[in-house]
Amino acid sequence: MVSNRLGEATSPYLRQHAHQPVHWWPWSAEAFERARLRGVPVFLSIGYSACHWCHVMAHESFDDPVVAAALNDGFVAIKVDREERPDVDAVYMDATQATTGSGGWPMTVFLTADGEPFHCGTYYPRSQLLGLLAAVRQAWVGRRAEVLGSAAHLANALRSSYAAPAVPAAVDPAALERAATSALSDLDPVRGGFGSAPKFPPAMVLEALLRHTRRTGSVAAAAAVDLTCTAMARGGLNDQLDGGFARYAVDAAWRVPHFEKMLYDNALLARVYLHWWQVGADPLGLRVVRETLDFLLARMLTPEGCFAAALDADTEGTEGATYLWTPGQLEDVLGVPGGARAAQLLGVGTGAAVDGAWTLTLAEDPQDLDDAQWWAQARVRLAKARAARPQPERDDKVVTAWNGLAIAAFADAGLVLGEPRYVAAATRAADFLLAHHLSDAGLRRSSLGGIVGPAWGVAEDYGSLAEGLLSLHQATGDGRWLAAAGGLLDHALAAFSAPDGGFFDTAGGGDLFARPRSVTDNAEPCGQSSLATALVGYGLLAGSTTHLDAGSAALAAGAGLLARAPRFAGWAWALAEALATGPVQVVISDCGPDAEALWEVATSTYLGGGYLVRGAADAPGVPLLSGRPGVSGASAAYRCRGTVCDLPVTSSAELAAALRG
Questions:
Q1: Mean pLDDT score of the chain, rounded to an integer?
Q2: How far is CA 417 from CA 156, 477, 501, 602, in A?
Q3: In contact, 85 and 12? CB cutoff 8 Å
Q4: Which of 185, 288, 501, 661 has the highest CB neighbour number within 10 Å of its CB?
Q5: Distance CA 528, CA 526 (A)
Q6: Going by C-beta distance under 8 Å and a sequence separation of 6 or more, which residues neighbour residue 473?
Q7: How many CB atoms lie within 10 A of CB 30?
Q8: 3-state class of 395 per DSSP?
Q9: Buried b / exposed e across 435-469, counting CB within 10 Å, b at 16+?
């Protein structure tokens, strides 16, 4: 009889626990039925592959035979990858925060056989965990009615919270001005970012502020974006050798990161830096875009053509070991004079150290030509030396939503920068997801090694993938991507819609005791705001008022959070700014070489959440080109704001003036 059932999981995180003496089950109806038959509670442990303290608890406790015996004797133990089952994570995180006032991973929750939680926590050292297991078992045996009553009370409270309808509200320019004022009041005026340490890269809020700047000309919003983008790019949060951003900084100056690298962060940040570069032409922005996307291609690309979920924070059990340097190590690679030169440039040997070593920062790019050439060569040598070190493990799981964000980033960058390889990367990923993750029954959340996992997609999977496909449609002019996005959104409208115009995270009839609904844009866009954004985009690109109205209704349903805490509604705020601007749509009707000048103006202009399409008039599958010919044999540009269009123009000067207006 198999005692640990994680060996065949499509989650690398679950497979990391397959060797343990704990009789782990994956999340399944069979596991809860086993608990019911045995008359024992469920021990639920939720984490993810790149989580440092998840690994610590695994080694301290779940590898330990004494802990394993206590779990096996008194509980049915279930292990969940929060990235594979974000809906499970959301429900029990809400329970944990409601009962303890905080949350995090690893998450440790005790459940009844009906899945209702009665005791919640996070990381427990081995001794505390053993004591807790004994106390819970004693309460289960001696005071079960009390335990079951407490679980039912908490479960009912969560059900009521999710089912409570939002009060839709219009998001007008005054509300957007208040959102900007509120967010900017939390700005760190010296080091950028919002709040104090730890600092997370606020990609969605930065996108909203960029759009707010375009719409209003706000000097304060523009300055906040400049400060934050510069500080993040030059600090240790950004990998100065290999490209790519770490999950967050543990300090206020962005110098020392928590070293895990997540796909969603890098996809979102690549688009922000692309748009920042479009606004101000800062070469730092362009460099970061290229380095971030090239990092994803070099380090995160899977054999299937998609992108892996994450790189771990740890290397052989030590957090950040791959990335840290001492002055002596720099000298080993570059020689004594070169090592000293690099140490001064990269901030090694000064400021806060991590276990006697330093992350690499780059306060400014070398300005002198000789210095710049030296640094370019030194960077290659340092990167090669670092690549010879032990490397962090990679979570090869392909997550639909996160790959949708990556598709959007590569497609947008390919379009704006004229980089066919970026568009090709987006195309490969989209082809795989549509061929393997999507079926007539719906969209799957993830796969591993080409094998699709059992979990169904949640709202964010549909919204983020649809948005990626819309970006790919604009980059290629291929109508099949628009059609695929429309199919996903129609399924989402049928499966996830809430009575108030918003969206639940899951389809009805799931395997949770409550149907979760998240409205917070935290590390990534939530399901409601990602679907709202994609619906608006599809509505404009396809000429569908049904989808446009549905997206606007979903935004209105989330207006309460945008009013209360705009920093935690960044994607919804960004959509609201785009809607207040129009959004702008630019269509280039291509009649020959003269279209290039129009295209150059359009791609170099930040449209603030707008849409850009190029092709022959009446091209099949591209509704924005329908009935939009050239003018007197010349290529023409059509500009629309929302559903109102201007007369076409044929010169780049006319188009530039129209886009400035």
A1: 96
A2: 52, 16, 37, 12
A3: no
A4: 288
A5: 6
A6: 479, 481, 482, 485, 541, 613, 622
A7: 12
A8: strand
A9: ebbbeeebbbbbbbeeebbebbbbbbbbbbbbbbb
Residues 471, 426: contact at Cβ < 8 Å?
yes
Give me Rg for the CA atoms of the chain.
Answer: 26
Interior/surface letters 199-229, b for 16+ CB within 10 angstroms, e for the rest:
bbbbbbbbbbbbbbbbbbebeebbbbbbbbb
Contact 557, 166 (CB under 8 A): yes
Cα(157)–Cα(253) distance, integer angstroms: 40
Q: Residues 315-339: what's their mean pLDDT?
A: 94
Amino acid at 291: E
Residue type for position 404: G
Are the beta carbons of 393 and 49 closer than 8 angstroms?
A: yes
Q: How long is the chain?
A: 661
CA dihedral 474, 478, 481, 486 (to 10 degrees): 90
Structural contact between residues 71 and 58, judged by C-beta atoms closer than 8 angstroms: no
As a 3-state breakdown, the chain gives helix, strand, coil percent values, each rounded to 5, of 55, 15, 35
Distance from chain centroid for Cα 495: 22
Q: For 436-495, what is each residue's pLDDT tens digit?
A: 999 999 999 999 999 999 999 999 999 999 999 999 999 999 999 999 999 999 999 999
From CA 309, how far away is CA 302, in angstroms rounded? 10
Structure tokens at 106: 């690893």
Token reading at 532: 């709202």
Question: Which tokens in the block code for residue 265?
Answer: 């962060």
Angle at 160 between CA 158 and CA 165, to 5 degrees: 125
Cα separation, 340 vs 381, whole angstroms: 15
261-272 per-position pLDDT tens digit: 999 999 999 999
Which residues, including other chains, have CB under 8 Å from residue 241's CB and lie 6 or more apart? 360, 379, 382, 383, 386
What confidence category does residue 2 fall into, taking pLDDT thresholds of 50, 70 and 90? low
Determine the straight-line distance between the first and last CA of the chain, rounded to whole angstroms.
71
Q: Is 399 helix (H, G, I), strand (E, B) or coil?
A: strand
Pairing of strands 76-81, 25-26: parallel
Cis preceding linkage at 198, omega within 30: yes
For residue 313, give the DSSP letter.
S
As given in the structure block, the two tokens for residue 83 are 């990235």
Which residues, 6 or more positions from 129, have their beta carbon under 8 angstroms from its beta carbon? Answer: 57, 61, 67, 108
Q: Is 637 helix (H, G, I), strand (E, B) or coil?
A: strand
